[in-house]
Design a protein that fits this description.
Blueprint: H1 2-17, E1 23-28, H2 35-45, E2 49-54, H3 59-64, H4 74-84, H5 91-105, E3 108-113, H6 120-133, E4 139-145, E5 154-157, H7 163-174, H8 180-190, H9 194-207, E6 210-212, E7 217-219, H10 231-240, H11 246-257, H12 265-275, H13 279-291, E8 295-296, E9 299-300, H14 303-312, H15 315-328, H16 333-336, H17 340-343, H18 347-363, H19 367-378, H20 383-397, H21 402-413, H22 420-432, H23 436-443, H24 450-466, H25 470-479, H26 481-484, H27 489-501, H28 505-513, H29 523-539, H30 543-560, H31 563-579, H32 583-600, H33 603-619, H34 623-637, H35 643-660, H36 665-683, H37 686-703, H38 706-723, H39 727-740, H40 744-757, H41 761-775, H42 778-790, H43 794-803, E10 823-826, E11 832-835, E12 838-840, H44 845-859, E13 865-866, H45 867-874, H46 880-898, E14 903-905, E15 909-912, E16 916-917, H47 918-925, H48 945-961, H49 967-980, H50 985-997, H51 1001-1016, H52 1025-1030
Parallel strand pairs: 1-4, 1-5, 2-3, 3-4, 10-16
Antiparallel strand pairs: 6-7, 8-9, 10-11, 11-12, 13-15, 14-15
Helix pairs in contact: 4-5, 4-32, 5-6, 7-8, 7-9, 8-9, 9-10, 10-14, 11-12, 11-14, 12-15, 18-19, 19-20, 20-21, 21-22, 22-23, 22-24, 24-25, 24-27, 25-27, 27-28, 27-29, 28-29, 29-30, 30-31, 31-32, 32-33, 33-34, 33-35, 34-35, 35-36, 35-37, 36-37, 36-48, 37-38, 37-39, 38-39, 39-40, 40-41, 41-42, ...
């Protein structure tokens, strides 16, 4: 059974190595059963990066212990810097930082040991991290614990060793054969517990029951009353021999009552004071305990040693140690508060210390810490004070730990005379968590009075509004006109927002006008007022007025220290500036919002800001920067379950590639448009669906799929016409699809209609440019080009000059196309070089890697690659100066061999010169015969993931198109795809279909059996062949 579990764990770790979906594994069992040993052994066997950490490490140490990825996302790097400077980082941000770092290190496994020792806050962090890990690829989270598994972990209970496994363990420890009688005696006592087995071995060999004559080991059976009967007793006997000296006993016991996570330099002084032993003596004791195997690097060698010691210390000595700790930590109330219970403080003393701890946490900006200490203070409070403190703790906890907040609100609401605000808070917390019946039941605790009905009414409106049920909230508001004048400002503003979302702007404005003057309201309510005011002005198209409201909102948010509100305000401010054509001001707002989001760790808002900023950069022609921001934002969004934002990130990437048009652009635009459409259908958002269909049709047109482009465009047009939305976008996509199908007159009519319907001039001019291209209208294109340049829309200006090269001017003469060169770099299989169609014998792996790296950069649309980037990629272990020198030498050698034009020098680095490639030819012409084997076979997997992905997807499409007409060729191509991505079920389906069409059912069965075995190696089970072929291929 134990070996079966280890086999399954091994498969899961292999799945991580193969970059399959993430794994969250929970290995549990009794003390000493070998959980940590097993986990670490498996990690050593798995050839990917991994790290084992104690589960109780402080947040700062937990994050900073992770290796720094070579390509570090800016957001996670900013959070590392905050932790390095000991700034408080919220739990959600810690989870996102850990997940982003682990994803950048993939394939990577993080092992957290002894999770049963962790605080509830750490358990919550680990659970949330596991939820994110399951959505990532090539990432594993392994925990070891004595406790049963939590969701969403896959749990494995580690069983004791068998007799054979126990014997093997002891023989390995002795490095020799051992008497079988002795082995059986140990197994009968240890019961297969690895720790107990090893402790027995050490104890019995020290006592001479196992003894060696230099050639063989012998066995002498001990008397039954001499050997301890449990591992705890065995440890206790070993420790009893060490605590004869008072100083040593005090040092051991003091270390046992101090938290196991502490072992830094500052801890030495604390340990010395708690033990009442001077530092020199303590250093001597530490060395002795390390030699005896009791301590390892300042921590107990095994948690059981600490547990046995803690259990054996009399209560009066524990109290004495704890009180010394309180004195030593007098200036650190948060650390001192951990010893309150052990020190048996009087309630008044405990309360004072907990309040000081809460104030300390508040001063550091650690609101969860503040809430934790206030919650702890509740149980030491008198009955009169308890409800008030519980209510205060619940208010702090509601945004960060709703479950704990409900517990505190329950205490506050259960007072003999319940505070109506506490009951209201409890109802709101329950409702937001989806516990509607419990929320309504809690409201019945309110006094049977008009005030109670008012509060119930307010809570219902708030919950409906927050849940997006705006019409129901308004109906409830209108049912009680008598309550409206008495409703709190927060509820009125909730109603106003609902009205604005329903486009009832006059009614929303009326709500605002009936509120008290702005300066008489609390700051948080002032923010809500200004936000609603700006919302109404924006919906009415009064952008100049909206700017002023937004400026006041941002200034107030900053004065309150609310980064979250300031970021939201800056995003809105940028949108309003853009609507007025004030691009530089809009960009400045987004850049400021990005800095604030990095500093505050607001993950979702940071991702949203990056999406907006990337749009602006793409308009300005900064395509590479835009791509980097979009991909980083998308990575963060996929750590969360935000379907609509994920869809938007795919739409923006599709738009980027359609405008940028690098060689691999059409394939990636198609892929992202398809992903956006899948998410839009899942979310049932009509606007996202319309946009996704429009972009998908345009991507099909650009990728050379005219029939698919027209079909999707017609679906988009029907949807937009029926819903009265995005009709300009639909006509534009329809026009391009008509052009792809050779219907030029109809295409021009549709595109011009789209331009006429588009209210935003930037998009109207963009649409009209396509009409200029189709009709070869240079003069109108020139006017648009000049307008694009005047507005800073250099990305669109570049597109215009691509359509009409004369617009770029004579100073920007086009270089000779590399496709005209006689040199060819072949990467669709083993890497080869050809000159005039004849192979060149070319040695030097690093030089080939350099050429291939520069080729990928060119395919990805990059004008150059910096020398530093190339040095880091090709010589990661070398010092920068040496790596740069070696790089220059390699460039020189390539130029000497292939000619001076092979690699071009650029302002910041290098670019591939007059060398064409089979990869670019394939992307341009779609000739699948160019593929001789897996991409970059025998060299590497590539560096720019988008290039490999585009080539793979394009090959998949070509192979699928050949399935009916040339099944043998389709089968050959499918085998290449499987060699590149052996766990892709779509490629496997294609391969099976092709083999069957070749008339080889036995070959298909054999191929599928091999695939089943391959998938089983990573812990995944495929269904039967027929069932597998009937499943839809992955999206």
């Amino acid at each position: 059974m134990r070996q079966e579990i280890i086999t399954q764990l091994r498969r899961h770790l292999k799945a991580v190595l193969s970059r399959r979906p993430g794994r969250a594994l929970w290995l549990w069992g009794e003390p000493g059963v070998g959980k940590t040993f097993t986990a670490q052994t498996l990690l050593r066997e798995t050839s990917c990066k991994s790290l084992s950490l104690h589960a109780t490490l402080p947040d700062r140490a937990l994050v900073l212990s992770l290796p720094r990825p070579p390509r570090r996302p800016a957001w996670s790097e900013a959070q590392r810097q905050r932790l390095m400077h000991s700034q408080y980082v919220p739990l959600a941000t810690l989870v996102d930082t850990l997940a982003a770092t682990m994803s950048a290190l993939a394939p990577f496994v993080l092992h957290l040991e002894d999770l049963h020792e962790a605080s509830p806050e750490r358990l919550e962090l680990v659970q949330k991290l596991a939820q994110v890990v399951l959505r990532l690829r090539g990432v594993g989270l392994v925990v070891t614990s004595r406790s049963e598994p939590l969701e969403p972990f896959k749990g494995y209970r580690l069983e004791p060793l068998s007799q054979a496994e126990s014997d093997q363990l002891l023989r390995a420890e002795a490095a020799h054969e051992l008497p079988q009688e002795g082995l059986e005696w140990v197994f009968s006592r240890a019961k297969g517990n690895p720790l107990f087995t090893l402790e027995f071995w050490r104890y019995l060999s020290r006592q001479g029951y196992f003894w060696s004559d230099g050639r063989h080991w012998h066995w002498r059976k001990p008397s039954d009353d001499f050997v301890p009967v449990s591992v705890e007793a065995l440890i206790g006997r070993v420790l009893s021999d060490l605590v004869e000296a008072p100083d040593l006993q005090a040092a051991l016991e003091a270390r046992a009552i101090l938290p196991s996570r502490l072992h830094d330099d500052a801890f030495e002084a604390l340990w010395s004071r708690v033990a009442d032993v001077d530092s020199q003596t303590l250093s001597h004791i530490q060395r002795l305990l390390n030699q005896k195997g009791v301590l390892q690097q300042g921590r107990f060698a095994h948690p059981l040693i600490q547990e046995v010691l803690q259990r054996e210390i009399p209560a009066w000595r524990k109290q004495a140690y704890a009180r010394r700790a309180l004195v030593a930590l007098a200036g650190q109330p948060e650390e001192a508060a951990c010893f309150i219970e052990m020190a048996h403080l009087e309630p008044e003393e405990a309360l004072g210390l907990l309040e000081a701890a809460a104030q300390s946490a508040e001063a550091r900006g650690n609101r969860p810490g503040q809430a934790r200490w206030l919650a702890e203070a509740v149980k030491y409070s008198s009955s009169l004070e308890q409800a008030g403190r519980a209510f205060e703790a619940a208010q702090l906890l509601k945004a960060m730990n709703p479950t704990r907040a409900i517990q505190m609100a329950e205490i506050a609401a259960s007072a003999t005379l319940p505070n109506p605000e506490a009951v209201l808070l409890l109802a709101e917390l329950l409702a937001v968590q989806g516990h509607i019946r419990e929320a309504e039941a809690s409201l019945r605790r309110l006094p049977r009075s008009e005030d109670g009905a008012l509060r119930w009414w307010e809570t219902q409106i708030y919950v409906l509004g927050q849940g997006g049920r705006w019409q129901q909230a308004i109906e409830l508001w209108n049912q009680q006109p008598g309550y409206q004048a008495r409703a709190r400002p927060r509820i009125r503003l909730e109603v106003g927002s609902c009205l604005a979302f329903l486009n009832k702007l006059d009614e929303a404005q009326h709500i605002l006008e009936e509120l008290p003057s702005l300066h008489s309201l609390p700051p948080a309510i002032q923010l809500a007022v200004l936000n609603l005011q700006g919302q109404i002005q924006t919906y009415r198209g009064c952008h100049a007025q909206a700017l002023k409201s937004e400026e006041r909102f941002i200034a107030l948010a900053k004065s309150m220290g609310s980064a979250q509100a300031a970021i939201s305000g800056l995003i809105n401010h940028a949108s309003t500036h853009s609507a007025l054509g004030l691009r530089s001001q809009a960009k400045a707002c987004l850049q400021e919002a990005r800095i604030l989001s990095l500093q505050s760790g607001e993950t979702m808002r940071h991702a949203v800001v990056q999406l907006r900023l990337a749009d602006m950069l793409a308009d300005e022609g900064e395509f590479e920067q835009a791509e980097a921001l979009l991909l980083e934002a998308q990575g963060l969004l996929y750590q969360h379950h935000q379907v609509q934002w994920q869809a938007e990130s795919h739409l923006k990437l599709a738009r980027l590639y359609l405008t940028w048009q690098p060689p691999h652009g059409p394939i990636l635009a198609l892929k992202h448009a398809q992903s956006a459409l899948r998410l839009a259908r899942a979310s049932r958002d009509v606007k996202f669906l319309a946009s996704s269909l429009a972009y998908l049709s345009r991507a099909h047109s650009q990728a050379g799929n005219p029939a698919a482009a027209l079909e999707v465009a017609q679906e988009c047009l029907a949807l937009c016409t029926g819903e009265g939305i995005k009709q300009a976008d639909a006509y534009f996509a329809y026009g391009l699809a008509l052009e792809a199908n050779g219907r030029l007159a109809e295409a021009l009519e549709a595109i011009r209609a789209a331009s006429a319907q588009q209210h935003e001039r930037k998009l109207a001019e963009r649409f009209a440019l396509e009409a200029d291209r189709i009709s070869a209208n240079l003069e109108d294109a020139r006017k648009r080009y000049e307008w694009f340049v005047s507005q800073g829309l250099l990305g669109l200006a570049r597109l215009a000059s691509r359509y009409f090269p004369v617009l770029a001017g004579p100073s920007q003469a086009r270089h000779e196309s590399p496709l005209q060169s006689g040199l060819c770099l072949k990467v669709l299989g083993p890497v080869e070089l050809e000159q005039g169609g004849q192979p060149i014998t070319y040695r030097g792996k690093k030089r080939l890697e350099l050429l291939c790296y520069l080729l990928e950069a060119r395919i990805a649309g990059r004008a150059e690659v910096s020398g530093l980037e190339l040095a880091d990629a090709l010589y990661p272990a070398a010092e920068e100066v040496r790596a740069r020198a070696t790089l220059k030498q390699q460039v020189h050698l390539i130029r000497m061999t292939l000619g001076p034009e092979a690699i071009q020098s650029t302002p910041s680095g290098y670019a591939l010169g007059a060398i064409r490639s089979d990869a670019e030819e394939f992307l341009q012409r779609g000739d699948a015969r160019l593929w001789r084997g897996p991409y970059l076979e025998h060299l590497c997997e590539g560096w720019h993931g988008g290039v490999r992905e585009a080539l793979t997807q394009a090959l998949y499409a070509e192979a699928g198109a050949l399935l009916e007409s040339e099944p043998k060729e389709a089968s050959r191509l499918a085998q290449i795809l499987l060699a590149m991505e052996p766990y892709d079920t779509g490629f496997l389906q294609l391969s099976l279909q092709a083999v069957r069409r070749c008339g080889s059912p036995k070959a298909a069965t054999r191929l599928y059996k091999e695939a089943q075995e391959r998938f089983l190696e990573v812990g995944e089970v495929l269904p039967g062949l027929e069932a597998f072929l009937q499943t839809a291929p992955p999206a």
